[in-house]
Amino acid sequence: MSMRLAMKVLWPAFLAAMLAEGCFFAMFDPREELHLGELALSPMAVYTIGFFFFWIFCALASMLTYYLVVVPDDPHPPF
What we know:
Elements: H1 3-27, H2 30-33, H3 43-70
Helix pairs in contact: 1-3
Protein name: Transmembrane protein
Keywords: Membrane, Transmembrane, Transmembrane helix
Transmembrane segments: 49-69
């Protein structure tokens, strides 16, 4: 994957992940909702894990969108 393609996918995914995390954690407080037995995570760890989860999910969606836009016009798909 070229650097340009990575930036075309990852930058919009990063911005969407920031928005998704802000909306999600505005409704759910990790200090109240996190009960995973003996696994004790700080709220900052939950925010970090949540952000990377949203970023990966948004990157997959962004890559799929890029693929669907580029492939019909290009005889050699980028990936």
